[in-house]
Target: Histidinol dehydrogenase
Amino acid sequence: MIRIFKYSDIDKSAIFMRSEPPANVEETVAGIIADVHENGDAALVRYAKKFDGAELSALEVTPRELDDALKSVDPCFLEVIEKAAANIKAFHRCQIRSGFVLTKENGVVLGQKILPLHRVGVYVPGGTASYPSTVLMNCIPAKLAGVSEIIVTTPPSRDGRVNPNILAAAKLGGADRIFKSGGAQAVAALAYGTESVPPADKIVGPGNAFVAEAKKQVYGRVAVDMIAGPSEILVIADDTCSAEYVAADMLSQAEHDVLASAVLVTDSAELAEKVGAELEKQLPALPRYDIARASIDNNGKIIVAENLKQAVEISNALAPEHLEICVDNPFDYLDMVRNAGSIFLGKYCPEALGDYFAGPNHTLPTLGTARFSSPLSVDDFVKKSSFTYYTPEALAGVKNDIACFARKEGLEAHARSVTVRFDK
Model:
């Protein structure tokens, strides 16, 4: 049963679940990474048998496997994937930036180049569910950024195959190669490379605690998008909102993971009671009942605030991954929101709309990191290089300034690298 609190009575630091990784995860992951680094494909094949129950003769998905998968996908679902991909492309295309050139006096030219990463690894989880939406959300912005090669890794099923829906999404999303590997071992392969898997410049995509720990440990050798925690949703609603809608939206995150957090903040004690009852009514109908039940019982909360302004202040303090503002005039509150991964406005904008279809990315900051980080975007797949050009006359005009600065920092060679050009 979900708990109801007055905001004045709750421990503010315990509103969202802040999970600790399983015992020995750091040591276990370090061992897996070292094994893959040393033994390459042989280690990946061994871990596929150990963790996935799959006997693999080859790690890479073949063109024939890809064609067979596309034929086996429900045509209606394939059409839905195409529609979602079009929406995601349209949104992320607006994020594409070009460099700039700044021309100054004396022929000085300054500028910035926007350069795509060469190779990116996209990790796609398996296990309790498959996520073709994750494939689209990670591959499409990488493709729009101009990434030369997109590598997807995902755990195989026991028969050694990859879920055909994931393969269909990879094809439509622009993936270049797909490998049958999951867990920390896949992250290690993308970081160091193996005989089959080429090393990536960046690794993106969500995963369990072992995947998150592996991304931590390889960071520095490669870039990573973020270290994601359990899913979070915070719903702000008033007494004009349907308790049925609110409960359904909270359960949409609770069914992800027993560690997921679903929180309602409302200025209506009556709505709080109705949502609590509605959760109990809807829970038994869910196929993932056990997961959602544990999430709601252990991490779910309903908080009664004094007013909606305070509700937004609570949300800003928590910096939720997903924020729903379920009121009649949501744009009245949008400018008040400072910290949130993705914001869903109004009573007909459930978070699931963003998960699959609307267009904005669903790879979002968790664990309060929306205070300083952003959703995955085209920007995550590019790097920037600045360039500078000075004429002799332009450098002559500032040589004494540069030499002065360098000598104040005790770096005489810096100073002389400028002045030597004018000694004669």
Summary: The chain has a mean pLDDT of 95.
